[in-house]
Amino acid sequence: MTGDLGDGTRVVHSTPAAVGEPFLAGPVFASAYHLGGDDTYGRPHNPTWRALETALGDLDGGTAVLFPSGMAAVSALLREVLSPGDTVVLPGDGYFLTRTLVAGMPVEVVEAPTAGPYPSFDGVRLVLVESPSNPGLDVCDIAALAGAAHAAGALLAVDNTTATPLGQRPLALGADVVVCSDTKAVAGHSDVLLGHVSTVDEGLAERLRTARTVGGAIPGPFEAWLAHRGLGTLDLRLARQAENAAALYEALRGHPAVSGLRWPGAADDPAHALASRQMRRFGGVLTFELRDAAAVERFLERSALVAPATSFGGLHTTADRRAQWGDPVPEGLVRLSAGCEDAADLVADVLGAL
Ligand SMILES: *Cc1c(COP(=O)(O)O)cnc(C)c1O
To answer: What average pLDDT is seen over the chain?
Structure first.
């Protein structure tokens, strides 16, 4: 509906507002409907999900199916696409729970680093990539991987959580499926868990909706509504977060206590050339290393504005020492999610804490 318009216009006008109606209709909590319309029961049908699915599908360029968390979206996709004995390629440096999930499935797993090299996709059913990867912020060439996957008869799925639907359109780059944890920047206020799958394959979208109805794990209408309200400011929030990430990158670059600084939006980041070819904009997540776990603890204790918290993409600047969760990264690796504070305040606070 809003395909030719800018990001800010698209997220604000993601649902058409009729005269006399609210701009964003309130959440519908019904479990049973007065029969006669399309909606019958709350497990298969909910207008609040549909409004958000329409908005997200429009941004992704496909059909979106909502799930109660990002992991629910990932697991619905994997269970729908993979059969026993299939081979799946996963990022060895991507979101850790995806690897945990697949480890419990009767499939062959091949891990590849996001930046490559990738194995041959011969005999592979599904290639799942994450770009930029969480937490390392490496980037892979989605169009090239889609070509290689399709040549081998495999599907390409992209976990687009770090990029968001405004930051990257994997379906337009040739991917078959996008998964996204809307818990992060899409909802954006650290108060909701939600996720979605988008695909250009209507048959797959229908199968995912059926799996959700039959499986019974459905999103809450209030959560869907909160995420939809958050989506309206995604353009504004991402702009401020990227501005803050750029300021922090400048401040941390060359700092004696900091190594391995990564932000794909920076001109001197190793992923920048590829990222700027395939991404539409950059977000607020940076990664860097301090000497060890104790150095990270001291940094977080001394900072007034950087909250120790997992997750990312919220209004508040947060930092997460990923090794504490078992990510295969150095003990002192910090994933910092720049929030929507003022850049000067953040830079002063972070430099002071270091
Ligand atoms: C957080 C995250 C997930 C899981 O999402 P939840 O909403 O926490 O279930 C999946 N993939 C990536 C890249 C993530 O960052």
So the answer is: 97
**And the tokens for 224?**
């869907």
Kindly list the domain boundaries of the chain, sorted by start residue: 7-231, 234-353
Asked if the domains at 7-231 and 234-353 fall in one CATH topology, the answer is no
- Sign of the CA dihedral with 104 first, then 69, 186, and 18 last: positive
Q: What is the pTM of this model?
A: 0.97
pLDDT on residue 17: 87
180 lines ligand 1 (CB under 6 A): no
If one residue of 75, 90, 183, 192 were mutated to test the ligand 1 pocket, choosing by the most ligand atoms within 8 A of its CB, it would be 183
pLDDT confidence of residue 3: 58
8-state DSSP, 197: E
User: Cα of 70 to ligand 1 centre, how many Å?
Assistant: 5
- For the Cβ of 195 lying below 6 angstroms from any atom of ligand 1, the answer is yes
Q: Kindly give the distance from the C-alpha atom of residue 240 to the centroid of ligand 1, in angstroms, as a whole number.
A: 22
Q: What is the DSSP string of 267-332?
A: TTSTTHHHHHHH-S---SEEEEE-SSHHHHHHHHHH-SS-EE-SS--SSS-EEEEGGGGT-SS-TT
What percent of the chain shows pLDDT beyond 70? 99
Rounded to the nearest whole angstrom, what is the distance from the C-alpha of residue 211 to the centroid of ligand 1? 20
Mean pLDDT in residue range 229-249: 98
Four-way CATH pick for 234-353: 2.40.170.20, 2.40.128.590, 1.20.1250.20, 3.90.1150.10: 3.90.1150.10
| CB distance 183 to ligand 1 below 6 Å | yes
pLDDT at 1 > cutoff 80: no
The CATH architecture assigned to 7-231 reads 3-Layer(aba) Sandwich (3.40)
